[in-house]
Amino acid sequence: MAGDQLLLTALDVLCCRLSYDVQNEVKDLTRTWKKTIKVSIGIDPAEIFSGADWALMVGAKPRGPGMERADLLNQNGEIFQQQGRALNESADPNCKIIVVGNPCNTNALIAMENAPRIPRRNFHALTRLDENRAKCQLALKAGKFYTSVSRVAIWGNHSTTQVPDFLNAKIGGLPAMNVIRDDKWFKDEFTPRVAQRGGALIKKWGKSSAASTAVSVADAIRSLVVPTPAGDCFSTAVCSDGNPYGVKDGLIFSFPCRSKGDGDYEICDDFILDDWLRQKLAATEDELSKERDCVSHLIGVMGGSCDIRGAEDTSVPGEM
């Protein structure tokens, strides 16, 4: 972004005509923005990422029939290894990267480890969609407006092991558990419903949730460039190095965060963890650790082994 000009570039690995359709649609939106827009499309990632302040990595290879999660991690990992190296070569040194393509946590990890020139804290994996879904479920259950729900965090992996936090959530400024006095609903209905919401939508409509995902990407960016309201938070999966909750370093793990609106953030350090929440966090941390081991050859770590072959499928529907 330079002055009154907004430069949008798109990496089109398939040389697909649809990319040019998107380009034309963006140009049609020019009248709604107060900047001159230039859109370019290319196939060389180093060229496309040149000087980039923000990189939204939306695409990833979906799972095919009979493909295990370990295979998906490896095949997408090779793509994000290349993208990470390209970002390292040509993006702005303070570029902010948001990975949407699944499995987004480990894809973001691979890109991060292959871009040492860019601060590790600048890499994000999208869990804002999960947060938005959690807020909606709490609002519906309480019979309140969505905007009355705050302090909702998503912990861990963007998979079915994710942990939507109801313990620290608030509705109308009150603890959610004081408004919805139903511990069984929180644990047995709310938690799995948020994690499996994408699958429910696909089952009903036959398509993935593209619109709500697009809104959540915009929300994720807004959370970094607009100051977080006092006492609130937003969810994003970021590098776990030095986090205040004892999650092992070297993972891309979703935490409650807050921002001053300068593109940076800090992990909130005042969230309460009970035994149930700790147990859930340990499970999603373990899954992310195993995913990291599966892609160790792509992040410069030797001797890793892949222990998720044949394990329970925790994929989110967008990986299919």
Automatic annotation (TrEMBL):
- Domain Lactate/malate dehydrogenase N-terminal: start-end pairs: 24-124
- The EC class name is oxidoreductase
The record places domain Lactate/malate dehydrogenase C-terminal at 127-297
State the reactions this protein catalyses. Answer: (S)-malate + NAD(+) = oxaloacetate + NADH + H(+)
- SUPFAM superfamilies from the entry? LDH C-terminal domain-like (SSF56327), NAD(P)-binding Rossmann-fold domains (SSF51735)
Q: Which UniProt keywords are present, listed alphabetically? A: NAD, Oxidoreductase, Tricarboxylic acid cycle
- Respond yes or no to whether keyword Metal-binding is given for this record: no
What are the GO MF terms of this UniProt record?
L-malate dehydrogenase (NAD+) activity
Q: Which residues bind NAD(+)?
A: 76, 100-102
Gene Ontology biological process terms, A to Z: malate metabolic process; tricarboxylic acid cycle
| Record-linked Pfam families | Ldh_1_C, Ldh_1_N
Give the E.C. number(s).
Answer: 1.1.1.37
- The record lists substrate as bound by 63, 69, 102, 133
Q: Which domain of life is it from?
A: Eukaryota
- Protein's UniProt keywords contain Transport: no
| Entry-linked PANTHER family | MALATE DEHYDROGENASE (PTHR23382)
NCBIfam families per the UniProt record, alphabetical: MalateDH-SF1 (TIGR01759), PRK05442.1 (NF003916)
- Protein name listed in UniProt: Malate dehydrogenase
In its UniProt entry, the species of origin is given as Haematococcus lacustris
